[in-house]
Write a structure and sequence with these properties.
mainly alpha, single chain, 10 helices
Length: 261
Amino acid sequence: MTTAQLQPNSPAAPVRQAMSKVPEVTALFWIIKVLTTGMGETASDFLAHVLDPMIAVALGGVGLVVCLAVQLSVRRYVAWIYWTTVVMVSVFGTMAADVLHVGLGVPYLVSSPFFLLALAAVFGGWYASERTLSIHSIHTRRRELFYWATVLATFALGTAVGDLTATTFGLGYLASGVMFAVLIALPALGHARLGLGAIPAFWCAYVLTRPLGASFADWMAVSHQRGGLNLGLGPTTAGWSLAILVLVGYLAATRRDVAAR
């Protein structure tokens, strides 16, 4: 799914939209999105190991608020601001799901439906207010707030679902990652062959990027006894962060992801 598919009425010769607050949906968009999910997963776990969990959650919350404030203050899409905010949403979304499970003892079989209902409530409020769920209609403050609430809910839901399949259902991280890699192709197939709308197909794929990236990042980080490569949380976080920096730097320099009207 690309920007053109999400904007079926766009003209044949698109022009640059200076006030857009989101990037164009391209292959690089999906690659960076998956990388942020994995990096957020291992970064959250790493912070919880080196810091007191409550301090880690507090720092994650402060970081998210600061990044959102900067993102909301700019008048157009800026690659490094947008993707830094996504990373912080990823880290804090992971913490939110982990706090429910580890801190409060809520099983993933309960938290996964809870976050699904939360996401449905955000979608319902967004559509009732704006009559659209398109990410390329984000040109007002209210729509942008709905957008970021949706992104946060998708990260929390994806974290819970990924841990549900890997641990509760016993698939392990690698098998879970492979499963989600297959599942993420279904929305595109549904859009191309079965008449699924571009916008619901996009959001289905967006949700699935979270357990996809997190499962493979966990597989790289965890010990051999847990079925992983035993690279460690710190090195895995650093490696995925470097990949994000390189790709976002490329987009910032080339502006290839500036959304078209």
